Amino acid sequence: MLNLISPPPLSLYIHIPWCVQKCPYCDFNSHAIKSELPEAQYLQALLNDLEQDLPRIWGRRVQSVFIGGGTPSVLSPEFYERLFSALRALLAVNVNAEITLEANPGTIDYERFKGFREAGINRLSIGVQSFNDRHLQSLGRIHSANQAIKAFEVARNAGFTNINLDLMFGLPSQSVEEGLRDIEQALMLNPEHFSYYQLTIEPNTFFHAKPPSLPDDDLIYEMQQEAQQRIAGRGFEQYEISAYAKPGKRCAHNCNYWEFGDYLGIGAGAHSKLTDVAQQKIIRLVKEKHPREYLSKAAQSGVIISEHVLNRHDLAIEFMLNALRLTEGFPAVLFSERTRLPITVVEAPLRQAEQQGLIEWGLHTVRPTDKGKLFLNNLLELFLQRAKNKKLRPELPDPLFQHSQ
Predict the structure, then answer these.
(1) How far apart are the C-alpha atoms of 32 and 318, rounded to whole Å?
(2) Residue 275: phi, psi to the nearest 5?
(3) Is a pLDDT exceeding 80 seen at residue 20?
(4) Which among 126, 117, 214, 211 is positioned nearest to 165, based on CA atoms?
(5) Mean pLDDT over residues 304-309, rounded?
């Protein structure tokens, strides 16, 4: 018995599984467009999906919405206008809810961005990745550097006042100077938020099968440290290992993930984490992944392919794997509030991390040190190792705050 008293904040994630072209580094649930997109059919499938899950969230308000992919901007503004009209009839969405759409610079124009804004989307995440045409080509991107700059300007003209730019570093054959030029160009555009993260080679990707030549670790470290200094010098605060925001512009949706809040996921391959106070359990749901199968099963009320009740070990480990990404760490009381467990259940790996200089563990707060931020994988591995020793396999969600653009 978890002694759950009240659920945490709730967010909504909507997955759009299509993109113009599959990037060689991408391991997200995305599928290259090969024919006309079934917008009307997918819209109905999303609503069927949502209606099946509504009993799980009766009476709860949605604080944020994130539309990820894939490339959500390949769908029309009319699709989103109809979607949000239906969502607000079914859900209690906060009036000032943050509503984010991931967008690819190669799939936008002024009328499209204007239509997204009029549909109710108030935050954009533009997948730039680089302002260097050579690097964009090596990453399989469909846009050019000039198109990326133009996309940002068009978004501003269309009325978006809250824009995130996705940037990557450690790209194939990228020099430190080239990486810093990307940062300087991004800073000139003056967005409200950056997602700045290192290219990693993931299983089941083209890059994994045919690895590109990447900069060595010393160059990557130099690039990252200098870039972070320049970002900080322009008034951005790093609040998560790869997220930087101007004051008041942190991504509320992603913060809810990292603070182990609840989220309902709809769409092909979407994941959910939901607290059921009545049944005294916290569950994970996984939806059918392939778009074709998802469309078929949504019409038959059968899109859920996995339902897993989190046990005490799952809860403790998953909380730590999320919250330790936050540069300010987390209040110790939050661990108990979200898991209904005493923090002593993870005392052993916390003590190990403290002894290795990876965290500071005070009376009220646990936070990663500078070393812990730099060696985050080593820090998280202490908790994953605990799961392996106990023969556990925590079911972690998709990185729903995906940088897949």
Answers:
(1) 32
(2) -95, 125
(3) yes
(4) 126
(5) 95
Domains 10-257 and 312-391 share a fold: no
Q: Which residues of 8-47 are buried (b: 16+ CB within 10 A; e: fewer)?
A: bbbbbbbbbbbbbebbbbbbbbbbeeeeebeeeebbbbbb
Task: Report which of 330, 326, 261, 269 is spatially closest to residue 303, judged by C-alpha positions.
Answer: 269
pLDDT(248) > 90: yes
Instruction: Count CB-CB contacts under 10 A for residue 104.
Output: 28
**Rounded Cα distance, 116 and 123, in Å:** 10
Rounded distance between C-alpha atoms, residue 347 and residue 358, angstroms: 14
pLDDT of residue 385: 78
Exposed / middle / buried, residue 65 (Cβ in 10 Å: 0-12, 13-18, 19+):
buried
Beta strands 304-309; 18-19: pairing state: unpaired
Q: Are 383 and 346 in contact (CB under 8 A)?
A: yes
SS3 23: coil
Q: Which residue has the tokens 């009209």?
A: 85
Sheet holding 365-368, edge to edge: 330-331, 365-368, 359-361
For the cut 80, the answer to whether the pLDDT of residue 386 exceeds it is no
Radius of gyration of the chain (CA): 21
What are φ and ψ of residue 360, in 5° steps? -110, 125
The residue whose two tokens read 């080239």 is 178
Please, which residues have CB within 8 angstroms of residue 163's CB and are 6 or more apart in sequence?
123, 124, 125, 126, 152, 155, 156, 191, 192, 193
CATH classification (class only), 312-391: mainly alpha
Q: Is the pTM of this model over 0.70?
A: yes
> Which token pair is 160?
């978006």
Which residue shows structure tokens 């209904």?
340
Question: How crowded is residue 300: how many other Cβ atoms within 10 Å of its Cβ?
Answer: 8
The domain ranges of the chain are: 10-257, 312-391
Tell me the two tokens of residue 108: 């936008």
- The residue behind tokens 């069927």 is 48
pLDDT in tens, 70-124: 999 999 999 999 999 999 999 999 999 999 999 999 877 899 999 999 999 999 9
Query: What is the rounded distance in angstroms from the CA atom of residue 176 to the CA atom of residue 221?
Result: 9
CATH code 3.20.20.70 for 10-257: yes
